[in-house]
User: What shape does this take?
Amino acid sequence: MTLASYAAHPEQSRGRRHAEAAPSYRSEFQRDRDRIIHSAAFRRLEYKTQVFVNHEGDMFRTRLTHSIEVAQIARSVARALALNEDLVEAIALAHDLGHTPFGHAGQDALNDCMREFGGFEHNLQSLRVVDELEERYAGFVGLNLTFETREGILKHCSLTKAKELGELGLRFLHKHQPSLEAQLANLADEVAYNSHDVDDGLRSGLISLEQLNAVELFHAQYAEVLHAHPALAERRAVHETVRRLINRQIVDLVETSRAALNAASPADIDAVRVHSEPLIGFSPEMRRQGLELKRFLREHLYRHFRVTRMTTKAARTVRALFEAFMVEPGLLPPEFAARATTLEHETGKSGRSRAVADYVAGMTDRYAITEYHRLFDPAESS
Ligand code: MG
Assistant: This one.
């Protein structure tokens, strides 16, 4: 398949932080994807969640299945637009590597704990995982990914942080765009969670079909399904609706982006980067409908009292773990304790806190719960 001139071409990559010989039978971006799949952080995504805590049911999405859905959606769109499928896949599979246990509740709690030490942001943490925390290769720490994959992982970043990030931070300072593949992976993430949270929300019983039918984007697809298949069982009608929901958004994304690319006709990836705005996007109408769905999910699912009960417990668990390790780093497993000592020598208490945050952020939901019991339940073995 021929790549468009404005796609990310592996031979034009800005390269890796540590120079390496070119791979033999793979492109540079395929190598990135493979390194991500073989990482420990990737495997842990299986036991980390988005909305529901891991033990609540085997049917719900985890961060692993979410990341695979994002990759699949991004690859379909990339192929339709002649963009680099390998690069979007690598970015999509890595985009959530830095997530804490317990979804956004965990991230917010850890960010609170880290307030006086520079904060905690899952996006930056994903980058930290691939740049520093994975130790799998003899020649370097981290996965030594290409600039383009790292650029895609870092979706957003404060200006203060951007200044510390060197070449990777420049686009935030100059208000430049990332590659089209990075723009796409970001929107594929939205398509995936908006659609699968509808599905998981309905399955959990926390939201109802009746409520969802007040949302235009959902209602339009659901009405179409019922019209075409009036006798369809409810569960199957929901699946068919979710399928169409994803498809509607993908078709809109492809068509809107194609028109924008044709109009701007950027000569290459550098022209994409200096373009005044992103070139991958939804139509204004789809954006409006997508926002309505997002708002619905926030109000009725993410803030449902039962979800709030879980997230409050989750936040308390993360906070308690962080505080315990901060007060007594001797509670950390030896390799993390050693890291805390090293970082503390470099930057004092903030170094210690970063090592503790790395350890807590790396935990899966169930590991965090087990660790909590080990630390605080006197009857539990440690
Ligand atoms: Mg995501």
Summary: The mean pLDDT is 94. The two ends are 55 Å apart (CA to CA). The pocket of magnesium ion is lined by residues 66, 95-96, 189 (CB under 6 Å). The CA atoms of residues 17 and 178 lie 18 Å apart.
